[in-house]
């Protein structure tokens, strides 16, 4: 996704054809660079100033957030907000739930998706195209509408307020995602490897388990991380299908901070920061794996 | 190790049973937790059914009629405003940044990484952050605008009809533009530099080259990005629910919020299903129209 060739299109100086054209082209180059910087500064501020404000507020003492106009550069930094979060056992429960549910979702999604994706990538069978479209489309249906039935369905099986309900509901969006990511990954595996194994009389399952999946380890990890992040970020399913004992951080934070305690902005920003960190870390890891995975594929394939 | 059979089945042709076993777990899961719930939810539209009481009675088109006679047009109007705003604005920001980064300015890689952060954070965090920024009493937006002399007194942005919708669109834009940027940047990097060179030799200026070289080359990516953004925004829930809950006075209520509220606060599954049915029919119509216009070749 964010893996690109290092060769960028540089602001190439104009070809020296005729002097006026050359001067004009160069002026445009400078103008273009200026425009580029303006765009980066303006849009970049829009992107990053809120991040700064999140960081600044989470290290500001609560009473200092009740100042108007707010101090743009906080002077009295503190860890008080984070300490208050640690002292709240309910928030710890949400955190544990988030980790458990996202982890199980990721592992389950990758395992189920890997087999399906392998079939899509390396086998041609009737209904393959329509099945692939169905998998792709299945993540485009609105969650609030699915919930109209999912709630009753989980209730029927006594699964409301359980990890199982959260894992299953998260799988509605992580499974299609993993199938498509892994299919892309398996597509890059050279058929020759599989054929060679077939000639050596390896069974079909053995080919999958001893050759395809090990080669694809970086892809499996990448898909798993993506699924983890998507599960971690989910709000509506965890809000609806679980109560406080099983809820994950996003709905947990809404329940804790929105409403009665709506004024607790500093601890809320600290909690938001904590909730965001795993996602950002996962993404940094993911980027490495994507790069490594593609490089490995090039060597081995 | 069955040896003889394998030789006969050939290279890619799997035996049916093997493929079925590969596909079945995933397929069964998707049928059970996506397709069945979706169809069942749409069918609910024709029943009188409560979230908490067992049983249901056939109601014909009563639910649908009641939605159409009720706030349907308002919901449609508000959903479209949010969808169009939250699709166009991130596109503009993402395109601007993609073009800027593609000029090869210094620190391009680092910038691209840092600019992704708003896309990574959970929707709930996005909502909290912008709630705090737009806060009427101590919000930093009021503080900055007032010190610049642009407003006389702190504004309650989220309690006024228009500004509440704009605030939601801004928050959604903030978290959406990085994805647009990454997609467009990837597309831009596939434009062969020779095309620009050739156009330059022919005397085409920057703007001319943007419209006659860059845009045609990016057509495919642009239409996919806009389509997906449209679909996602048409169904967006998290930010609206946390920031305004559909308020003030229902003026930021969208289909997603209405379905959720009707089902889980109003406990009226039949009506929620009816809203959902109309919503999905509309989405399909809009997507079909879009595909016809944006991508006439693929539509055929």
TrEMBL record, chain A:
Topology of the protein relative to the lipid bilayer: Multi-pass membrane protein
Location in the cell: Cell membrane
Pfam family of the protein (one): BPD_transp_1
Entry keyword RNA-binding: no
Biological process annotations from GO: transmembrane transport
Keyword terms: Cell membrane, Membrane, Transmembrane, Transmembrane helix, Transport
SUPFAM superfamilies: MetI-like
Matching CDD domains: TM_PBP2
UniProt domain ABC transmembrane type-1: residue ranges: 95-286
Gene Ontology cellular-component annotations: plasma membrane
Segments crossing the lipid bilayer: 34-55, 91-118, 130-151, 163-186, 207-229, 265-286
Chain residue ranges for the region called Disordered: 1-26
Protein family: Belongs to the binding-protein-dependent transport system permease family.
Name of this protein: ABC transporter permease
Automatic annotation (TrEMBL), chain B:
InterPro entries, per database record: MetI-like, MetI-like_sf, UgpAE/MalFG_permease
UniProt domain ABC transmembrane type-1: residue ranges: 76-290
Membrane-crossing segments per the record: 21-47, 80-101, 113-133, 164-188, 209-232, 272-293
CC terms in the record's Gene Ontology section: plasma membrane
Cellular compartment(s): Cell membrane
Pfam families referenced in this protein's UniProt entry, alphabetically: BPD_transp_1
UniProt topology in membrane: Multi-pass membrane protein
Keyword field contains Transferase: no
SUPFAM superfamilies xref list: MetI-like
Example GO biological process: transmembrane transport
Keyword hit for Cell membrane: yes
The entry's keywords: Cell membrane, Membrane, Transmembrane, Transmembrane helix, Transport
Family affiliation: Belongs to the binding-protein-dependent transport system permease family.
UniProt-recorded name of the protein: ABC transporter permease
Organism, scientific name: Actinophytocola xinjiangensis
């Amino acid at each position: 996704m964010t893996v690109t060739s290092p060769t960028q299109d540089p602001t190439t100086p104009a070809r020296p054809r005729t002097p006026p054209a050359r001067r004009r082209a160069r002026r445009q180059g400078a103008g273009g660079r200026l425009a580029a910087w303006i765009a980066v500064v303006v849009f970049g501020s829009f992107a990053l100033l809120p991040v700064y404000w999140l960081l600044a507020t989470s290290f500001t003492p609560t009473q200092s957030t009740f100042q108007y106009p707010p101090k743009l550069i906080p002077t009295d930094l503190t860890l008080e907000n984070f300490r208050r979060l640690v002292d709240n056992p309910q928030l710890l429960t949400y955190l544990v739930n988030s980790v458990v549910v996202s982890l199980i979702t990721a592992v389950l999604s990758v395992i189920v998706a890997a087999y399906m994706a392998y079939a899509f990538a390396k086998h041609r069978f009737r209904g393959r195209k329509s099945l692939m479209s169905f998998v792709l489309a299945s993540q485009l249906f609105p969650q609030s509408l699915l919930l109209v039935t999912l709630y009753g369905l989980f209730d029927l099986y006594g699964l409301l307020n359980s990890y199982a309900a959260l894992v299953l509901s998260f799988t509605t969006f992580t499974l299609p995602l993993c199938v498509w990511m892994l299919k892309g990954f398996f597509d890059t595996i050279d058929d020759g490897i599989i054929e060679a194994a077939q000639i050596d009389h390896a069974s079909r399952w053995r080919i999958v388990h001893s050759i395809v999946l090990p080669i694809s380890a970086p892809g499996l990890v990448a898909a798993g991380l993506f699924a983890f992040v998507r599960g971690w970020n989910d709000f509506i399913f965890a809000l609806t299908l679980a109560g406080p004992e099983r809820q994950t951080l996003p709905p947990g934070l809404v329940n804790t901070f929105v409403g009665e305690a709506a004024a607790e902005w500093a601890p809320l920003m600290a909690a938001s920061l904590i909730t965001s960190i795993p996602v950002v870390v996962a993404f940094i890891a993911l980027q490495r794996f994507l790069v490594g995975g593609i490089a490995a594929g090039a060597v081995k394939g | 190790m069955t040896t003889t059979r394998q030789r006969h089945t050939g290279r890619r042709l799997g035996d049916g049973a093997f493929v079925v076993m590969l596909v079945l777990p995933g397929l069964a899961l998707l049928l059970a937790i996506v397709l069945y719930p979706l169809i069942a939810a749409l069918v609910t539209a024709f029943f009188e059914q409560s979230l908490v009481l067992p049983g249901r009675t056939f109601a014909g088109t009563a639910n649908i009629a009641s939605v159409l006679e009720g706030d349907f047009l308002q919901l449609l109007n508000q959903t479209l405003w949010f969808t169009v705003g939250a699709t166009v604005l991130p596109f503009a920001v993402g395109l601007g940044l993609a073009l800027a980064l593609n000029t090869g300015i210094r620190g391009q890689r680092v910038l691209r990484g840092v600019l992704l952060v708003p896309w990574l954070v959970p929707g709930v965090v996005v909502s909290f952050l912008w709630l705090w920024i737009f806060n009427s009493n101590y919000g930093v937006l009021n503080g900055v605008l007032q010190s610049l002399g642009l407003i006389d007194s702190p504004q309650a942005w989220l309690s006024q009809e228009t500004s509440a919708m704009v605030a939601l669109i801004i928050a959604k834009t903030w978290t959406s533009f990085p994805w647009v940027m990454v997609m467009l940047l990837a597309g831009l990097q596939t434009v062969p530099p020779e095309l620009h060179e050739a156009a330059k030799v022919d005397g085409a200026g920057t703007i001319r080259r943007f419209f006659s070289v860059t845009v045609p080359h990016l057509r495919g990516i642009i239409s996919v990005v806009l389509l997906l953004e449209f679909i996602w925004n048409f169904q967006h829930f998290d930010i609206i629910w946390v920031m305004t809950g559909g308020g003030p006075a229902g003026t930021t209520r969208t289909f997603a919020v209405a379905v959720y509220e009707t089902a889980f606060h109003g406990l009226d599954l039949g009506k929620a299903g009816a809203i959902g049915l109309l919503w999905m029919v509309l989405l399909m119509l809009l997507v079909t129209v879009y595909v016809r216009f944006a991508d006439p070749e693929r539509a055929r």
